[in-house]
Amino acid sequence: MANPSENLARAKTKLIEEGWCVLPDVLAGTEASAALGTLWKTAEAWAASGGDTFMKVLDPNASNVRVFNLIGLDPLFRDLILHEAASELVEALLGPDFMISNFTANIARPGSGSMSLHSDQALVVPEPWLEPWSINIIWCLSDVSFENGATLFIPGSHKVRRLEELGEKPRERLTPFEAKAGSIIAMDGRVWHTSGKNITADQDRALLFGYYSRGFLRPQVNWNVVLPADVQNGLQPELRQRLGLDASANTAVGAHILAAGL
Ligand SMILES: O=C(O)CCC(=O)C(=O)O
Predict the structure, then answer these.
(1) Quick check: is 251 in a domain?
(2) In which domain, by residue range, is 40 found?
(3) What pLDDT score was predicted for residue 208?
(4) Ligand 1 pocket, 142 CB below 6 A?
(5) Ligand 1: distance of its center to the CA of 106 in Å?
């Protein structure tokens, strides 16, 4: 049986070549169910404070429970977004200068529908999409199956450079990411995907989406605005830097040019 570092090395290769990979057992079963409990408490507190857990522009009905700004809401999510396994996969695809663009949850409850097909990179960068400039790390807090609404993706679509290359009837080429609770799924930002329909009678599908991008891209969220001051003040230096809260911002891309001393 492969050891964890062999699994991680294989996952990185698959991510780079095929645009996605699944890394099992990143969280133990008990950790995944504790995280699910924290997520529900966070969602309830967010709703009780007047926050929306349904956005019409994203989901066809309110059976999808969305939680935004996880980083501001509970320390667990501040740990997960910098988890070593997640960071290794992100760095393998994007290089070391990555930023945290967003961190949200989507719990697909029975009866939830499928959102619009999209790639996450296409939502933040105009075409052509020539290189991986973003990635999603999807945390599975429940087992994920086709029936309970697994994320559906188009294999090979990380090679799509322009919308017109997506081809005819793209939804007919969708296939599910199935994984056990405690796994992470890494998805190149160029992969075209959507949420599946939850057709079960009684199973929730709970996923967290950690979205990361190259350091020269503006994050989806303005962390300076959404993170409360007391949270910002308590953050560890790496998290502050990856959220763009420090004074220095877009300085990494040309560092080798300055170092060359031309
Ligand atoms: O929940 C899912 O399976 C996919 C969610 C998604 O793609 C999104 O929110 O952009």
Answers:
(1) no
(2) 4-243
(3) 98
(4) no
(5) 7
> What's the one-letter identity of residue 143?
D
Q: Are 108 and 149 in contact (CB under 8 A)?
A: yes
Q: What is the amino acid identity at position 147?
A: E
CATH number at residue 92: 2.60.120.620
Cβ(106) – ligand 1 distance below 6 Å: yes
Instruction: Judge if the beta carbon of residue 93 lies within 6 A of ligand 1.
Output: no
| Residue 259 domain flag | no
pTM: 0.97
Q: Is residue 230 part of a domain?
A: yes
Best residue among 193, 205, 213 to mutate for probing ligand 1, ranked by most atoms within 8 Å of CB:
193
CA 158 to chain centre: 16
Cα 195 to averaged position of ligand 1 atoms, centre (Å)? 5
Q: What is the pLDDT of residues 162-173, one digit of tens each?
A: 999 999 999 999
Q: Measured in angstroms, how far is the CA atom of residue 153 from the centroid of ligand 1? A: 10
Q: Which tens digit of pLDDT belongs to each residue from 222-247?
A: 999 999 999 999 999 999 999 999 99
Domain count, the chain: 1
Q: Which of 86, 38, 75 is nearest to 235 (CA)?
A: 75
